[in-house]
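If you are new to this repository, start here. Below is one unmodified record pulled from the training split, so you can see the exact layout before writing a loader.
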Amino acid sequence: MVQYLDNNANSGFAAWAAAQQRNQPGQSRFGRILWWIFLFLVAWWIVGLFMGDAPKQNVAVNAEPTVNIDISNVPTQIIESNDINARVQGLRISNIDLKNYARGARDAEPVKLIDGDGFVEIGVMPNGTTAPTATTVWKKSGDNMVWRNNDGVEFTRNITADGFMIRVSDTIKNNSKRDFSFAPYTRVLRAADKNSSAGVYTGAIAYVNNDIEHNDWRSLDKKSYAYTTTNGFIGFVDQYWESVAQIDSPDQTIRMKKQGDLYDASTAAAPVVVAAGTTKTITTNVFAGPRDAHILSGAESTINGIVESVDYGWFWFLAQPMLWSINAIHKFVMNYGLAIIIFTILIRILMWPLTRKSYASMLAMQKMQPELQRIQKLYANDKQRMQMEMMRVYQTHKTSPMSGCLPMLIQIPIFFALYKALLISVQMRNAHFLWIQDLATMDPYFILPILMGATMWLQQYLQSNKNDSANQNDIMAQTAKTMKWMPVLFTIMFAWMPAGLVLYWTVSNIFGIGQMMWLKHKTK
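And here is the target side for that same chain:
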C-alpha cells in the first residue's frame, strides 16, 4: 500500500515537510499522518471482524419456556428438488441437504442446514377451535397431509420443493356453522455457528418495513428482540448460507431470542377469518440455500427483500461489480486463483494513468533535490520565504508533494471491497490454487503473506533515491526509517486474511514493480 510514497529522507516531500516542521521536535506531521492512516486501517479491519450492525428497533421480550416435545410418532417424509432434500414431520421441516455443495474440500458430504435439534415449524394458532400441533399425526392423501378437528374444520397441507425454495400451502376448510380465525406463524430454531463467521455477520436476520435487521449470536445471548411490520421474513444467516421463512400474510410480529441451547426467530401474522362454509389458503415460503447473488435474485420474486440479506460492506458499490467480474473471468479460466490474478492486472491497467503520474511525480521530486536543498540553506532564517520558493519550484516542475499518495488512497476502498467480496463469495469457498485449498481462508503455510511483504519492501527499495546523501538527522529521514517497517507490519496483518485477498495484493505489488522499472527506464 505504501509503494506510492516516497521513502527517501532527502526527497522533495521531505524537504517540503521539514521546512514546516523544523522547529517541532519528534516525529514529523507527515509521519504521524501515515501512522494514523495505518492505525485507522487496522481499527477498521478489527471493527469489521467483531462488530455487527446495531438493530434500529428493539424491545425486550420475555423468553418462552424451552419446547421439548416428542414427535417420534409423527410420520416422516422426504421432499426433494434438484438442489435440496429435506425431512418433513407434520408441522416441522429439518435436515435440509444442499446437494450440490460439499462440506469441505476433503468432505464430499453435502452441506446440511437446520440440522441437529433445529427445525422450521409452520402452523396456525386457532381462536375458538383447535388446530394441528407439532405432535399431530396427519393422514396421507396423495401428495397432501390431511387432519380434521372435532368442530368439522379440515386442514390440508401441501409441501413442495423447487430449487432452494420450499413452499407450504395450508388450506383450511370450515365445514362447521361457526366462524373461526387462525393466526399463521413460523418459527426457525437452530444452534449457533459462532466459529465460522470469518469476519462476516452471522446470526438472526429479519426483513422489517423494507429494511434488514441484524442480531448476531452475542446480542441474542444478552436479550431478546421484537419488531412489527406489514410484511417481512425471519431466519438465520451464516457466512455462505441462509435459512429464512416468509408468511404470505400481512401485519406480522417478529421475535428473536435464545431458547435454551438454540436460537429462535419467529413471526406471527394477523388472524385469518375462515367463515362458516368457506375455505382459505395460507402460503409460507422457506428459502434454504447459498448466499449467491444470482440465486437470491431468482428468489426475490417469492420472498421480497431477500437479496438485501447479503451484506457487501461499506463499499458495496465496488464489491458487487468486483465479485461479478471475478466470476465472469472464472468462466473462461476455470480457476479462481487465475481469475484473481487477471482481475488484479486489469485493475492495475485501469489505474495506470494515475499510477504513471504518481511515479513521474516521484522521479521529478528526486531531481528537484539539489534546488530544494539550496533553498533550505539560503532561507534557513526566513521560513515564509523558504516555503514560497519551494512551492515555486513545485509549480515549475508541475508536481506536488502529495501526488504520490493518490494511488494509495484509491487502493483503500478497493482493498475493503475485495475483502468483503471474497469472504461472502460462495464460489470462492473451497476454491483451490496451487498449495492453497480454500482461497476464502488464510494461507496455511503463510507463503503468500511473506511474498507480499517481500514485494512491498522491494517497491520501497526501488522508489528510493539511492544516489542522494541522506541527512540522518532530518526529521523525514526518521520517518523514512519508520516506513521501512511497514512491510513487516502488513505481512503480520495479512497473515490471517483470506488467501485470495493476499494473492491480489501480491500480484498488484509485482505488477507495480514492473511498471516502476519500465517508467524509470523510459525516463533515463
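Two things worth knowing about this chain: The chain has two domains: 2-17+317-523, 77-311. The mean pLDDT is 79.
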